[in-house]
Task: inverse folding
C-alpha cells in the first residue's frame, strides 16, 4: 500500500539503457509510461543516473585484451566489464526523453568515482561508500520504497537488496523494469531479492 511515507525509486532510465544505446536493455523504453503513471501515487520520487567519467575502470576499453561482459577482480570484488556507457554529459547519459523528470524530488548520480562502479542507489560496489540516499530518505521520514527501472538484474536488484539491508520496506514492480539477463543474472537476482524479503510485483 502506498502511503505518504513511501518513495518511488526510479533506477537509471537513461538513453544508454534503451534501444539504440551502448548498453541497451531489451524493450527498456517500454517501462517509461508505467513509471510516469506511478509517480503520482508517491510522496517522494527519486531518480538515479549512471554518471561515469570517460575513463571509468568498469569499462572494458580501460583493460586492454579484455572483452565487454567479461569479469575481472577489482579491490572491492568481481566486476563485470561494460561497454563504455553513460559518460558524464553525453547524450547516452541523459534520461529517456519521455520520462517525467519534472516530478523528481531528487536525482542521485552514481558511478562518478573512476576507481569503483556503483550499481546500487545506496552504496558504491564496495557496499560501504554511501551515495547519501539513505540519509535523504530518513530526513523525509520515508520507510518504504518501491523500485522500478533498468536493469532489473543489476542496478534495480542491488538497490533493492541494500534498501532491505538498511531496514526499509522494499518492493520491486517488475512490470516497470527490464533485465539484461547476463549468464543467468535475472534468475539469481530474483532469488536473491526474495530471500532478502523484497516483494516482487508482477514477476
Result:
Amino acid at each position: 500500500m502506498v502511503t505518504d511515507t513511501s518513495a518511488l525509486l526510479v533506477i537509471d532510465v537513461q538513453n544508454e539503457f534503451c534501444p539504440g544505446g551502448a548498453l541497451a536493455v531489451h524493450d527498456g523504453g517500454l517501462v517509461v509510461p508505467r513509471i510516469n503513471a506511478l509517480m503520482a501515487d508517491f510522496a517522494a520520487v527519486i531518480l538515479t543516473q549512471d554518471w561515469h567519467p570517460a575513463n571509468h575502470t568498469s569499462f572494458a576499453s580501460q583493460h586492454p585484451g579484455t572483452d565487454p561482459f567479461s569479469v575481472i577482480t577489482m579491490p572491492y570484488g568481481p566486476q563485470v566489464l561494460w561497454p563504455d556507457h553513460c559518460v558524464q554529459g553525453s547524450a547516452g547519459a541523459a534520461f529517456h526523453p519521455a520520462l517525467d523528470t519534472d516530478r523528481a524530488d531528487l536525482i542521485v548520480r552514481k558511478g562518478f568515482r573512476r576507481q569503483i562502479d556503483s550499481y546500487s542507489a545506496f552504496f558504491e560496489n564496495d557496499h560501504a561508500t554511501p551515495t547519501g540516499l539513505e540519509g535523504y530518505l530518513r530526513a523525509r521520514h520515508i520507510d518504504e520504497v518501491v523500485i522500478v527501472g533498468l536493469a532489473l538484474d543489476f542496478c534495480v536488484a542491488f538497490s533493492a537488496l541494500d534498501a532491505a539491508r538498511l531496514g526499509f520496506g522494499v518492493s520491486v514492480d517488475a512490470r516497470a523494469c527490464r533485465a539484461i539477463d547476463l549468464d543467468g543474472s535475472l534468475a539469481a537476482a530474483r532469488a536473491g531479492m526474495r530471500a532478502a524479503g523484497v516483494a516482487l510485483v508482477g514477476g
About this structure: Strands lie at 6-11, 44-50, 71-74, 77-80, 106-110, 144-150, 169-178, 199-201. The mean pLDDT is 96. The two ends are 18 Å apart (CA to CA). The helical segments are 32-38, 133-139, 152-165, 185-195.
